[in-house]
Amino acid sequence: MPNSVARACTRVGRSVFAAISGHVRPDGLIAVVERWSTSLARVRIPDRPLVLVAESIERPGNLGTIVRTACAAGADALVVCDPVTDPFHRDTVRGSAGALFEVQLATATAEAAIEWLRGRALRLVVTSPSGNCAYWDLDWPGGVALVVGSERHGLTQRWFDVADEVVSIPMPGPADSLNVAVAAGIVLFDLARRR
Q1: pTM of this structure
Q2: Strands of 77-81's sheet, edge to edge?
């Protein structure tokens, strides 16, 4: 996480601000911030942690919402595996509503993340529409890593191969899928409640 200090502030006119913000309705503030390391080695988690893992999320807005959701649910860390979109993309930062500066964020390959999570004795809970139990039937086992996958393809097989549990979100309505950030929020907040 950053430890930044404002170096300089500059006021600009409306048209200049609109040109550099790139958004239809800019918020009125823009910052240039130095990126910080997203190495797994920097992440510190407590006993019985709740970690969210997001694999290959494609849309920056979805990743930003996932960051914000992880922060709001009190997750101890967010691990972005095999990133397809940049966690520092402006739409990710915007979608996070500032939470990017509050949550411990790491990026890694899935293999490195699995090794790191296993090294901390976390139970790997994988989400899938074909899960063998509903998310609400999962017992709080201590430390948990909740794993969600890309919008288009879901999770890669390697996560199913190492999963301790595969859970689903039962959907009695006619819709057969949810946005990845919504799905992550549903299960994450339930785990946070039981924590």
Answers
A1: 0.87
A2: 105-108, 77-81, 50-55, 144-148, 123-127, 165-168, 133-134
Give CA–CA dist 83/66, Å, rounded. 13
Q: What is the DSSP string of 71-84?
A: HHTT-SEEEEES-S
* CA 91 – CA 72 distance, rounded (Å): 18
Whole-angstrom Cα distance, residue 44 to residue 143? 13
Residue 5 burial class via C-beta count within 10 angstroms: exposed 0-12, middle 13-18, buried 19 and up = exposed
What is the C-alpha separation between 157 and 99, in angstroms, rounded?
Answer: 30
* CA distance linking residue 6 with residue 31, whole number of Å: 9
SS3 177: coil
Q: What tens digit of pLDDT does each residue of 105-123 get?
A: 999 999 999 999 999 999 9
- Average pLDDT of the residues in 51-66: 97
Rounded Cα distance between 48 and 138, Å, is 15
Nearest CA among 122, 92, 89 for reference residue 191: 122
Tokens of residue 78, six digits: 């967010």
